[in-house]
Structure formats: C-alpha cells, structure tokens
Specification:
The complex is a heterodimer of chains A (about 325) and B (about 110). Chain A is of the alpha+beta class and about 325 residues long. In chain A, about 55% of the residues lie in helices and about 10% in strands. Chain B has two domains: about 70 residues; about 40 residues. In chain B, about 20% of the residues are buried. The chains are: A alpha+beta (about 325), B mainly alpha (about 110).
Chain lengths: ~325, ~110
Amino acid sequence: MEANIAIPTDSKETWSGGGVKPFGASYGKMMMWFFIVSDALTFSGFLAAYGLTRFKFIDSWPIADEVFTHFPGLHGVHAPMYYVALMTFILIISSVTMVLAVDAGHQMKQKKVAWYMFATIIFGIIFVGSQAWEWKNFIKGSYGAVKTTDGKILQFVKDGHQIALSDFVVEERADHRVQHTRKNGLWFEEEATIATYSIAQIKNAYQANTDIQIRSELINPETKQKVILSREEGLAQLAKTKLVVEGANLKVNEYGNTIFADFFFFITGFHGFHVISGILINIIIFFNVILGTYEKRGHYEMVEKVGLYWHFVDLVWVFVFTFFYLV
Amino acid sequence: MAHAHESSKKRIWIVLIMLTLITTVEVLLGIIKPASLHLTSVLGTSPLNWIFIILTLVKAYYITWAFMHMEGEKKWLRRSVVWTAVFLICYLLTLILIEGDYLHSTLAPLVKW
C-alpha cells in the first residue's frame, strides 16, 4: 500500500516510512546496488555462455593473440594485447576521475566535481572510440582465409607465421567475376561483397609457392598452437574450399569458429552499450553539477550513484578483458 | 556518507597503482606465456589461466571495495549484494561449464580433422 502513496517532494531521499533507512543507505543508492547485482548476473550469463561454447570447441578455439594484433600507428607489426591493455588502463583512469568527483562532492567542491566529471566523460568517449577501432580491425580482418565444405577455416603460413592472401596471390583473377550492383545487373537485387580473390587463384598460388603451408583450426594440446598441415595434407584440404573469407561478421569469420565472432560482437557490444549509456548519464549529471542542482540540494549523492554505475562498467570490462584476451 | 568531509585521496591513488600493476603483470604474462605455466595443467586448466582469474578477482575486489566504496557500507548491505552475486554466479558457472565439457566429450569425437 505504502508504495502507492505520493511522497512530498521535499522528502524524496527518504524511504516512504520516514527517516529510517534500511542498511543506512538511501533508497536510490540501494536500488542502484541491486540493479548492479542483476546486471552483473546478465553479464555473467553471457560470459558463462561464452565459457560453455569455448569448452565445447576447446580443441579449435581461436587464439586471442592471433586475432587482436593491431596497435594504432604500427602497421603490420604483430602487437598482441598492447592495445586492449591500453583500453583497460583508460577505463581504470576514468574510474579514478569518477571516484575523485565523488570525493570532491563529499567536500561540496562544485568546481572540482565538474572538472572530474568532465574528465570521466572524455575518458569514456576515448574508450568507446577505441572499441570501435578494435571492431573495425576485427571486421576488416588482417589476413584472409578460406572455408571448406565441412565448415573449417584454413589459414596460410610461411615460416610458421601467418601471411595474408595478398602476400602470395599475385596472378590475375581469371574468372572475370565482378561485384553485382543495381547498376550493372538486376536493379532489384543486391549482392554481398565478393572476395578479392577467387578460389582458383588461391589454389594456383598455393601450388606455385612451395614454402607456403596451411594452418588448420585444430590446436595441438602439447604446444597450444594451431596445427600446421604438411604440403600434401594442405592441398587435400584446400581442394574442399567453398568460400574465400576476408574479415569477420556474424556468419563467417576468418579467425576460426564463427561463434567466436558472434560472442565477441555480442559481449563487447553489450558492454560498449553500457559505456555509452554511462557517458550519457554522466553528461546529464555533469550539467546538473554545473547548474548547481546538487549545491542547492545540499549533497552530491547523485554523483555517487552514477559513480556506482560507472565503476560497474569498469568492473565488467575487467572480466571481459580476462576471458576474451587473456585466458 | 560516513566520512562526510574527509578526503580519501591517498587510498584512491594506492588503488590506482595496484590496479595498474596487476594489469601490467597480466599483460606481461599474456605476452610472454612462460611454458612452465602455460603448457601444464592444474585443476582443469593451465596455472597461467588460474593466475589470470585470481588477479582478475583481486582487481574486482579493489574496484568494488575502494571505488564503489563497499568498505564504507553497512555490513548487511554489503552481504546482500556480494553474497547474492557470488553465490548465483558460482552456481551458474559450475553447471554451465560442466555442460560445456560434456558437449565437447560427446561431440568432438564426431568431428573429422
């Protein structure tokens, strides 16, 4: 019954029963905590599903070091982990500026709260931008691979290192295949982007370059490296090619299991969505701080509450970082 | 709101240093991947993975306790949040990871490499 009774606005921070606060926490703060619990369970559900799938395909799961290898400004340099470590650090810094804003709020220093909130927003934007860049690299792909009729991804290696299709496929495309667009074909049909190289080109190039080998998805449990096939085995596998794959999307993935890409997009995307909402909420609170809303109210608890949400986003990233990039 | 006017800046910087150090250690281990930790197995996975998981939990502790100021909350607010989440997550993970292992043991023999 009590929940339906309108509360006078001047006692908004108290529970409807009056001055008694369960656990000594205000209504808003406690509800923020319980929202965080439920959101944490949502993320756990996603990460657990990722774990299940990874255990299911434990002998062929893509190796993160071979997937995320880019760093801004270092073209073609194999730089695993550095970029994502930088992103983690940016998010930690944004957490620190947030907690400094809360701290300044306790001391009723309006200007300091505003500046720290501003810094938090900027770092948040940098993080989301970094994630967009990471997605771009993942979608574009760096090497290219082929997919066989039995759904396996074959990558190409030279001296044990993966090489791109463009590194060894040199001859002209013989099948004269061109992209079907509305202008050169049926106006009511569109075609998905076709691969740069034809299957025949890749087969010929493989046969012409005897130093190139094929790497399968299978992991050797002894070395925890992907198994590299001999030239003959490679040729037999290559004969089954049905598709040239460049980059990753929800249907096909040059790094290996398609579902790896699906989980990557879904989990980092859901986290990125949280970061974006966090930035928006931070911006709203930032303007409230500037307008002096909390100065008039007499306390900065609102900053504390969005702070809780923002730290939670950081907390989730710590786990995503571990389970996608490290383990 | 217990410490209404005192600043806890020192604690914040210490936690920042801790989090940075732990992340650096994780990244270094992830790049070097020492064979003795990476290629051996303890309790179902490599010791390296266990190190990563434990360090992650340490980071989670610092973020929740210091940044989210859980250390300043009343005991039972803390417990209602932490115990609930920890129990349910452990429960979910146990069931689902065992299931994943089972799927592998039944389906992997059917895949021809």
